[in-house]
Amino acid sequence: MQKNQVRKAVIPVAGFGTRLFPATKVVKKELFPIIDRDGRAKPVILAIIEEAISAGIAEVGIVVQPDDREIFEDLLKNPPKKELFKKLSPQNQEYSRYLEDLGSKITFLLQEEQLGYGHAVFCAKDWVQDEPFLLMLGDHVYASDIQKSCASQLLDVYEQVNQSVVSLTTTPAEILHTAGCVTGVWQELNSILEVTQLYEKPTIEYAQQHLHVEGMAENEFLCIFGLYLLSPKIFDFLAEHINQNLRERGEFQLTSSLDRLRQEEGITGYVVKGKCFDTGLPDTYRQTMIDFRNF
């Protein structure tokens, strides 16, 4: 894989948010509010975009349903009406201008049919073109343990290894069924891993037999943290699955294409120095509201 500067991030937000129904019948889950460390109430999607920008990303592509484009544009492209703007505090007026600048870096990409996460990623193909890109989940926010943001850490590892990188976190066995899991061989202990297998939502029994990583506790595993730095080659495998109608659980998924990418180009895993906050389930969203500001 030829090394290129990573300029673009992709955030798919075209799902239905069924796990947060009926709230998501009226508000997209990516627009649910969280409180950041400055005490500012903001929609989840904004915190994700800011994470990308913190890593030096210049352009962000947001994959949306056609019917949802207007509401995201209203947040990221349209300033508030004059009468509302005048009522904002000076700090919020400044933040409103910042939002307009941020909006200039946003492109909306349409997913006409909701055919799975892998399909949503594929909808960014023409916009990404032949560049590596940062892929971010639309319902996870991040807080770093160190000065560099979580996304910045991932880009740094890409610069070192010159191949696709998946972010990892240590996960207890009892929640493996909710996550993508990997195994591999440590290149730097508890930090950088040569990935040898990716597996979506394994059972505990499968993980114990096939996915345990040397040196880790018996009931701890490495799961996806929510950030990916991917070669554009991923689109070839996604296209193949879509063209051949190769679905998993009725949809086109990402993980099987990631494993194809691993076989052809190699994938590095990186254990992020930070915490990932999930906003996609009622209980995890509630906990994120409590924890995110104070982390």
UniProtKB/TrEMBL annotation:
GO terms for biological process: UDP-alpha-D-glucose metabolic process. The lineage of its organism: Bacteria, Bacillati, Cyanobacteriota, Cyanophyceae, Nostocales. Its EC number is 2.7.7.9. The keyword Coiled coil does not apply. SUPFAM superfamilies: Nucleotide-diphospho-sugar transferases (SSF53448). Keywords: Nucleotidyltransferase, Transferase. Residues 8-288 form the Nucleotidyl transferase domain. Belongs to the UDPGP type 2 family. This is UTP--glucose-1-phosphate uridylyltransferase. One of its GO terms (molecular function) is UTP:glucose-1-phosphate uridylyltransferase activity. The keyword Transferase applies. PANTHER family: UTP--GLUCOSE-1-PHOSPHATE URIDYLYLTRANSFERASE (PTHR43197:SF1).
